[in-house]
Specification:
By secondary structure, this protein is mainly beta. 12% of the residues lie in helices and 36% in strands. β4 and β5 (63-78) form a beta hairpin.
Length: 169
């Protein structure tokens, strides 16, 4: 997703452009709106977009498709003076986003990075996902497995009391 910002860079600080976005990218369709604001050092991009995501459930390993809502602002710095064509000093930040020598602002990498930070750490196919049986691997959401119940050896001493104790007098 690229924007030619040459005209915006020629305008006064504070000039603004808004764009509706509905574009197919390598991970899927990105839908939202982008505002580009002229700053003294470049362009401030404000992005509100829905970006598709594809994960595996952290309990049962089922595939999950989910849309992530991104809302971020990132400044893109100019590398070439738009009026003279002279190279500009690089920004102090080593990982800053740059506007290329043809005055193209590419949002793809920023979208990718912000999408990665918005991804869930332990995605679930549903809140009550039962996961996989640790012995046979059966997906417990599809039904119980055939494994016998496993008793914790720390409770085996209580097994002998089973059936002996009755409620009430």
């Amino acid at each position: 997703m690229q924007f030619n910002v040459a005209q915006l860079l020629k305008e006064a600080v504070g000039s603004l452009r808004r764009y509706a976005v509905d574009e197919e990218m390598e991970d899927g369709r990105v839908v939202g709106e982008i505002s580009l604001l002229r700053t003294d050092r470049g362009i401030l991009a404000s992005v509100r977009a829905e970006v598709p995501g594809h994960w595996r459930c952290s309990r049962c390993l089922a595939e999950i498709d989910h849309t992530v809502m991104l809302n971020f602002e990132e400044e893109f710095y100019t590398t070439i003076d738009v009026n003279t064509g002279a190279p500009l000093p690089p920004p102090e930040e080593a990982d800053a986003f740059l506007i290329d020598s043809q005055h193209m602002l590419a949002l793809g990498e920023a979208l990718r990075q912000y999408r990665l930070t918005a991804e869930p750490m332990a995605p679930l196919c549903r809140p009550d996902c039962r996961g996989l049986c640790p012995r046979c691997g059966q997906n417990l959401n599809l039904g119980p497995c055939a494994c016998p119940p496993e008793a914790d050896p720390r409770w085996m001493a209580l097994e002998s009391l089973k059936g002996r104790w009755r409620e009430g007098p």
